[in-house]
Amino acid sequence: MVKIAIAAASSQLAREILDKLVEAQKHEILALVRKDPTQFPSLPGVKWVQTTYEDKSELVHLFKGVETVLSLFPVHLDPDNATQKRLIDAAVEAGVKRFAPSEWATGVKLESVLEFIPWYAGKVEIAHYLEDLNKEKKVIEYSRFQVGSFMNYLGHPHKTSEHVSTLPLQFDFEKQHATLIEGSLDDVIVWTTVQDIAGVVARAVEYKGEWPAVGGISGSRVTNREMLQLGEAIGKPFTVDWLKMEDIESGDMINGVDLRSATQEETEAFLKSAIRRILAGISRGAYDVTDEWNKILPDYEFTQVEDFIKKVWGGK
Question: What does the alpha-carbon distance between residue 58 and residue 44 come to, in Å, rounded to a whole number?
Answer without folding.
Answer: 24
